[in-house]
Amino acid sequence: MRETELANESGTALEVLERVFGYALFRGHQAEVIDAVVGGASALVLMPTGGGKSLCYQIPAMLRSGVGVVVSPLIALMQDQVAALRQAGVKAAYLNSSLEWGEALEVEHDLVDGKLDLLYVAPERLLSGRLMDLLGRVRVALFAIDEAHCVSQWGHDFRPEYQQLGVLGERFPDVPRLALTATADERTRGDIVACLGLEGAQRFVSGFDRPNLRYHVTLRTSARQQLLEFLGRFGRNDAGIVYCLSRRKVDETAAWLREKGYRALAYHAGLDGAVRSEHQARFLRDEGVIIVATIAFGMGIDKPNVRFVAHLDLPKSMEAYYQETGRAGRDGLPSEVWMAYGLSDVVQLRGMIDGSEAGLEQKRIERQKLESLLGYAETVACRRRVLLRYFGDDPEERCGNCDNCLNPQTLIEQPEATELAQKALSCVYRTGQRYGAGYIADVLVGAKDERIERNGHDAVSTYGVGKDRSKASWMGVVRQLVSGGWLTVDGEYGSLVLTESSRAVMRGEVEIPLRPEPERKKRARGERRDRGGAGAKVLEGDKDQALFERLREARLVLAREQAVPPYVILHDATLVALAKARPGSLTELGHVHGIGATKLERYGERLLEVIGAAG
Q: How many beta carbons lie within 10 A of that of residue 414, not counting itself?
């Protein structure tokens, strides 16, 4: 008989799933991973955000003898997961710098006394001599290394402390180890395996698709107006994240959103630590808060009901984009991700790469990653397909849930598109490859500009050859040539420079695909878009939607009574299931998705009261 069937009194993995977590079935590779780990095997697990990675180590930790030790990179992530586990009746704790000395000692005593199923720690704390000695005195069920992409120096969240975790295999050779992540290309996977000593481990790759996310990408024309139009799709109780590249832009955007009536808070590394902690806590514990942040915010966020993620600037790579957008819709409900971008983003990011202290090889790889992201932004193909193919998946041609699928774009017909490209490339060459996109566009349209005349560029053959098109149209041609690799941007000065592939275009040996620039929408003076109702509509019937909102209000009361985030009480997906099913008894309530035995005992009567009052 397999160990999964006789591990201890907890029962089988499926029984634990139903009794503790309130779920009837495993998803994807969950059952296979759990079976392997309970049987003593190590594993590398890649699952998309919201795909249920945590259950792959939580359930084995409850089934195997001893304590499951989870390596987690951020305090907020540990606190959220431990709070959620305790709500489900699981014996879990964390050790980190947020605990007073006496509190930490109490956790250590519980560890030694065998009172814990799961212990969450940071890599620095785990590798300290004190904790390693304590673990040497107890039985360890497993080691789970969450956010394992932090191992790789090519990754977007590199944490050098993670590279030392390979010692776990040497110190505890008989204890299974899991490395889990939602974001890892082939290079990063190789680093994870090598650094953590997982050469013989089983690999479980579930793909990267998040079908509940709708992808939108737009050219940045009037960023704030465009952001307002996007936010107008959501209600005042819907939470979201807005990412900006600079701290200054974060502060200014958050202040402007507050002026517009939004509960918006800034988050970046330049803020006082106490302020950052307060803003993060408000985002987690309150409804309808928007965090405006740099990439300093997010990896430790486990909030499942983030209904949207917006980018006002290009991220640094496809990995960063996938990770940041993945913070939306972790509960599986429909959510939206939106990005506005411009060529100035490429100039700024290239400058950051070229000005960094990284080695030449790392700079080359970072430039390639940035170019891949720009290509994604410029594509007329299905965005989900482009994104997933980057990570090695092979999805269908059209997803039906991105802007390009919902509103297909057409290309400029040949040979016109190639002629436009040739004119732009020739202009770059004839002006000496020393100027940015705006200047090149001015030369092409024949602008009367003192600088152009001073440089003598009003006399070059390309001056005015594009006067039949707008400057914005030529800026779009240049941007698409950069995204396609026919032009590159000097990181220090922002100058456009020809590439090897541009020669074939100028000689007419290849055809260039170009799409027309979208027309800029003008808003009437004084017109504004107010935020919607209580929340984005997640249910079709008005009565069901109203009950969902009442359940959300009741959940908020319960959360405040216990000083925990609302989502650790019940996920939005569970509230949706309650609003649809309208159970009339505790027995019926116990069959609802996400309500395990402990939550049924704690909250069953109060939930039935809310449902009964709705009629």
A: 12
Q: Which residues of 161-175 are buried (b: 16+ CB within 10 A; e: fewer)?
A: bbbebeebbeebeeb
Strand partners, 27: none
Q: Residue type at 527?
A: E
Q: Cite the DSSP H helix spans in 52-200.
A: 55-63, 75-87, 101-112, 123-126, 129-135, 167-171, 186-196
* Three-state SS letters, 291-302: EEECCCCCCCCC
Q: Check: CB of residue 486 under 8 Å from CB of residue 499.
A: yes
**How far apart (Å, rounded) are the C-alpha atoms in residues 342 and 360?**
26
pLDDT tier, 580 (very low <50, low <70, confident <90, very high otherwise): very high
Residues in CB range of 581: below 8 A, 6 or more apart: 588, 592
How many angstroms separate the CA atoms of 553 and 331, rounded?
18
For 317, which DSSP code?
A: S
Helix H segments across 260-336? Answer: 273-285, 318-325
Q: Tell me how far CA of residue 522 lies from CA of 67, 222, 519, 527, in angstroms.
A: 60, 10, 9, 10
Counted residue by residue, the chain has a size of 615
The CB density around residue 37, as the number of other CB atoms within 10 Å, is 30
Q: Find, among 100, 65, 96, the residue nearest to 82 by Cα.
A: 96
pLDDT of residue 296: 61
Using CA atoms, how far apart are residues 372 and 317, in angstroms rounded to an integer? 7
Question: What 3-state class would DSSP assign to 571?
Answer: coil
Pairing of strands 263-267, 213-219: unpaired
Q: How far apart are CA 73 and CA 92, in angstroms?
A: 17
The label of the residue with tokens 């050790």 reads: 95
Cβ atoms of residues 107 and 99 within 8 Å:
yes
Distance CA 160, CA 122 (A): 12
Residue 388 CB contacts under 8 Å (≥ 6 apart), including other chains: 207, 208, 209, 394, 395
Q: How far is Cα 86 from Cα 83, in angstroms, rounded to an integer?
A: 5
The residue among 101, 99, 144 whose CA lies nearest residue 126 is: 144
Q: Count other Cβ atoms within 10 Å, centred on residue 19.
A: 16
**Cβ–Cβ under 8 Å, residues 420 and 505:** no
Which amino acid, 123? P
* Predicted pLDDT of residue 356: 84
Tell me what percent of the residues of the chain surpass a pLDDT of 70: 93
The answer to whether the CB of 437 falls within 8 A of the CB of 480 is no
Say if CB 425 and CB 505 are below 8 A apart: yes
pLDDT of res. 527: 44
Is the pLDDT at 30 greater than 80, yes or no? yes
Which residues are 177's β-sheet partners?
143
Q: Tokens in use for 116?
A: 């814990």
Find out whether 294 and 245 touch, Cβ atoms under 8 Å.
Answer: yes
For the stretch 485-541, pLDDT in tens is 899 888 667 899 999 999 999 999 998 889 887 766 554 444 444 455 555 667 777
Looking at the DSSP bridge assignments, the partners of residue 405 are none
Q: Which two tokens stand for residue 305?
A: 């009901």
- With a threshold of 0.85, does the pTM exceed it? no
d(CA 11, CA 614): 38
Distance between CA atoms of residues 510 and 218, nearest Å: 27
Classify residue 430 as left (phi > 0), alpha (psi -120 to 50) or beta: alpha
| Tokens read off for 1 | 């008989």
